[in-house]
Amino acid sequence: MVDLILCEYGPPLEPGDALDPVVARGPRVLLNAGLIPSLSAAGVRVFDVSLVPEADCGSLQRKDLLEHVSARLASRVAASIAAGHFPITLGDCTAAIGVCAGMRRLEGRRAVVWVDAHADLNSEDSSLTGFYGGMPLGALIGKSLPWLAAELRMTRFCDEENVSVVGVRSLDPYEGDYLNRSPMARVECAELEGDASTEALARISRSLGEAGPVYLHVDVDALDPAIMPAVTFPCPGGLTLESLLVAVRVAASTGRVAAVTVASFNPGKGVSAGVLGVLVSLVCEVASLCSSAGR
Fold this sequence. Notes:
Blueprint: E1 2-7, H1 21-24, H2 26-32, H3 35-41, E2 46-52, H4 62-82, E3 86-91, H5 95-103, E4 111-115, H6 136-140, H7 146-151, E5 163-166, H8 173-181, E6 185-187, H9 197-208, E7 214-219, H10 241-253, E8 257-263, H11 273-292
Parallel strand pairs: 1-2, 1-3, 3-8, 4-5, 4-7, 5-6, 7-8
Helix pairs in contact: 4-5, 9-10, 10-11
């Protein structure tokens, strides 16, 4: 039973703004593209569809808006899990922080599979732009946005040895250096093709450990821009849809995926019937694989 959460927030590209309204429309565009009947056709039963935030937050400033949205997401995800449902959030990468805050009461050592063209490991000090969308994984490992973590009562979601970053290929100097020193498992795009995938998938499996809930994050810019051009920061040399799903299957095979985010569709960039079809297919595949495994 899936609860679909539409997070209508996008971190602003310009420091003086509170919201990127185009990115914020992305989840609603997917819903209007026939996502619910497509999920049903894939055998995924949707119990509830909800919006976060529930009302206009136009008066909130940049920092306060992210805090409000993250807190509302945490509350919604926690309620979904408590009801025995499977929350799938559509939004941007910062949604990961609120979703994981909603998972924090689950017992066991937590793990993350982060599928993304970008590592999103920056802090407010290391970031070259101040863009919040480049910081959520850093927040999950306790290295970024401490004020937000404190508000959500989540100092650190998981340890670095229980994180896999998959498809990452566009790194700031700080992020590249950090990954080189970190115990996080890194899987390159080419490693998920053909026979090369066996060892790469084993690294993901080891990072997931043997117990505890798993958070799966899929940023659609992990896909090659030839397949998915509708993203804010396209990066060549990306995954095929099938190679992305290879990584998803490893996470799903644990039966411990407790929540999923599919992130960062930008309806202002290259939207077509074909692009929408890929996005809907991706959400359906991820939902089908993860919501049924272990349930």
